[in-house]
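Example 289, ligand adenosine-5'-diphosphate.
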Amino acid sequence: MLYGALEAGGTKMVCAIGDENGKILERTKIPTTTPEETMPPIFDFFKDKGIAAIGIACFGPIDLNKDSKTYGSITSTPKKGWSGYNIVEETKKALGIPVGFDTDVNGSMLGEATWGCARGVSDAIYLTIGTGVGGGVISNGKLLHGMLHPEVGHIRLPRVEGDPGKSVCPFHDNCLEGLAAGPSIKARWGVSADQLADRAEVWEIESEYIANALMSYALILSPQKIILGGGVMHQEQLFPLIRKKFKELVNGYIVTKEMEDLDNYIVPASLNDDQGIMGAVKLAIDACK
Ligand code: ADP
Ligand code: ZN
């Protein structure tokens, strides 16, 4: 059986055809401009591919409440033309197949839970630190939605002493996204994050913000695994720094087997940056049920 997968991002749309094992057989990328311009070539890509369903892992905020009149739409984005666009309805209309739908980060979480490092784990969080910060959560084996969906990138954090930077989040002075996403690193140091690998002070501050956030997620969600993805996490030196600071912050309060093995608790994404698109395949598989 073949399935369609769409990873809908603010800068690009990744379209793929996958099978029931999450194997990606074909893919293409389309830049995200306006819905009028962006969506028709996406629908053309998926037409005549013999797919049974399509899964959409979408940038947000989005309406995931199946009882809502606007289920399937993108809600309050500043991205021109997308606010109020019902991507689920339009895709159903264009392709006439079942559509699975969730946030981009829940998609990545689902990919990792189905085919990656969180297989067999009932409670986990996937955090992406890239252009923004977002997180997908599984709780009791199910993707967490709730009132809207988790927005773990915007939790309030204490400022690191001596941090010369300012929050770049237009909503919050002290949130994780505003202080630790790629653009905030660039704003703080004047150079883009990928050019700063050998500047120790950059990763000291970065890891402290991330460790602080992980401490809150660990306490509130009680995940058995914390997965860190996104462009900034390609800086592998962050992992040991984050684990060390996380351990100091927890300060012995949580006593579990996971806490004794932080190398296997706070881990990088495991699917070669395909966790999102593979998760979208799983959303399609689940939409057939
Ligand atoms: P997006 O979040 O837009 O889906 P990414 O996850 O690739 O895309 O995140 C892009 C951000 O990550 C940019 O701010 C970029 O500077 C930063 N980034 C990308 N690659 C690296 C790297 N190797 N090291 C540090 N930062 C990186
Ligand atoms: Zn914020």
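Summary: Residues 2-107+273-287 form a domain with the Nucleotidyltransferase; domain 5 fold (CATH 3.30.420.40).
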